[in-house]
Amino acid sequence: MDHLPQARVATLTKLVNPVTHELIDKAIALWFPRPNSFTGEDVVEYHVHGSIAVLSALTDLLQSIKGIRYAEPGEFTKRAFLNGKFDLTEVEGLADLINAETEVQRRQALRQMEGHLSKVYSKWTNSLAKCLAYYEATIDFGESEDIEDNILDKARVEIKSIIDEIRTHLRDARRGERLRSGVRLAIVGEPNVGKSSLLNILSERPAAIVSPVAGTTRDVIETALNIAGYPVIVSDTAGLRKTNDPVEREGVKRAIEKAENADLILVVIDSSCLGSLSHFVGTAARLIVVANKIDLRSPEEESYISSMLKNEAYVSCSISCTTSAGIDHLLQLLESELKKLCGDPLIDSPSLTRSRHRKHLRECVECLDRSQCAEMETVLAAEEVRLALTELGRITGKVGTEDILDIIFDQFCIGK
Q: Are the beta carbons of 392 and 364 closer than 8 angstroms?
């Protein structure tokens, strides 16, 4: 084509080699002039037929043009960030959206890409920039200009409010990070109670070997599942019992370690092993007690077990891995517990999704705490607020001295 198509209008055009005048393909061309493109730069897209011959001819032609090269991994998004189209949290949201495997992961990633988390950090950044401007104005012009009375007191009150908000944001039980990386669920219990059978039911495939012989599972078997839209990494573990077999003993050790590091534990029992619950009640993880083999119990035995399982420390249900009785109830309990662990991105306030956010927010709060010290000189307090702003800026990729200067000269009639 020898001219640019109309901006943002799909245009059918001929792609011709300018040297040989040979027709390469008939294609759709889309022209996005700056700054209204993904990267903020001039961008043209060619939607061509996908044969190897067409793609090869077109890429060979493009590479023969001076200054044209293949994009580096992530370069389009990097250019969008550098041109102010996204901040770092929105870039991370885009990456998470590309890698999302479940519905709830998609929701969280999309909200972050659309700037919901960025708005939270921007609000704190703007407030702190204003507080820092108060400090800077007091330091530079307090003795010679008409500065508002008690302006530092106002700054300290505002900073205290921001500290409280950030600490509340940090107390999110890591639900955003857990949703992004997957909930760790451990299936534990004594040998031959149906742990591997339950894993196979949840997986809807034979993920683990099932055998009537106790102690079949000796190592941890992990599989990634999508349960009610939540990503779950399920670990089937060795049966918990005392044994002289060194291999099985190592499996029991790994089972306990996996449970200790889990977010959610499914304790599988039958009527003969209620005692295994004592291993896990009181752990940091949430518990679901699953009484398997309901098909083999009499009504009296089932009533007894149900009464024994009434406990505020966990929820419980009865199932049969053989007949699938109670499985729907178990899935409902799982969904409920997963919602408590991960939240709902459509309802809850935006959550931290990466450990780097948490690190910078903690350091931000430490700086702000120090700035609130009554004995600290104004110059040093201002420096602590500046450092706090820098920590927030490292999350979003946005912070600069000009922000402070704009506030000083916009809100204080200084420099006339």
A: yes
CA distance to 174, 230, 232, 263, 388, per residue, from 340 (Å): 11, 11, 14, 11, 31
Distance spanning both ends of the chain, measured CA to CA: 56
Residues of the chain with pLDDT > 90, as a percent, come to: 55
Q: Helix axis angle, 355-371 relative to 378-396, nearest 10°? A: 170
Separation CA 95–CA 372 (nearest Å): 38
Token representation of residue 236: 């089937």
The pLDDT tens digits for 299-351 are: 887 887 888 778 777 888 999 999 999 999 999 999 999 999 999 998 888 99
CA dihedral 243, 249, 254, 256 (to 10 degrees): 30
Pull the structure tokens for residue 228: 């009610």
C-alpha 131/C-alpha 162 separation (Å) is: 11
Within its chain, how far is the Cα of 157 from the centroid?
32
What DSSP letter does each residue of 41-99 carry, written as one string?
S-EEEEE----HHHHHHHHHHHHTSTT--PPPTTHHHHHHHHTTS--HHHHHHHHHHHH
115: left (phi over 0), alpha (psi -120 to 50) or beta: left
